[in-house]
Amino acid sequence: MNEIIAVVTITILAVISPGADFAMVTRSSFLYGRKSGLMSALGISLGVQVHVMYTVFGIGFLISQSPSLFMVVKFIGAAYLIYIGFTTIKSVVSGFESKREFEIVNSYQSFKTGFYTNALNPKTMLFVLSVFTQFLNKDNDLFVLFFYGVFMSLAHLLWFFIVAIFFSAPRLRDKMLKKQKVVNNIIGGILMFLGVTLLFSPMIGS
After folding, report:
1. CA neighbor of 45 nearest in space, from 131, 124, 154
2. Which of 27, 61, 124, 139 is the most exposed place for a label (fewest CB within 10 A)?
3. 8 A C-beta contact, residue 38 and residue 164
4. What is the pLDDT of residue 100?
5. How far is residue 88's CA from residue 189's CA, in Å, rounded to a whole number?
6. What is the pTM of this model?
7. What parts of the chain have a pLDDT lower than 50?
């Protein structure tokens, strides 16, 4: 029971803490609408499973103990956030509601950016790795471990669905779109800042 409480508590706190995931879902929701926001949230939740899979099979431990390999992962994740932040600052959006084909394409793009944001995020890797190595019973079988992994994904999905619905609300979205240059600069700046911070954050064990 203590193990379950620990996993649930840490997961909830990690999910609701502001970060790249929050900025990404907010970006997709206010710029492109509710469907894109929800697809971004879905991508983020599935991105968690990338870390769950290799952690369960022990690769996450190897990455955490290899400074050079971890640096590669960290650099890719940081560069991706900086790139998305830059493109957000440069983007200008208007009149999407009447363009069905664009909405479909953009929903797919939102899903991909959400997925890559989490799949390439070393902080998500460390969160999953710490939970599985520090708080779970070593005697747990694979079914139990994957059950916890599914819970982590569902927690991300539920929270970011709420975020997407909130920021895609018509009144709020209209206000944000009217000030989209300012909002884009804020969100893009946050993503770039998170990328730079991640790039220069201390190594594991340093």
Report:
1. 154
2. 139
3. yes
4. 57
5. 9
6. 0.74
7. 95-98, 101, 204-206
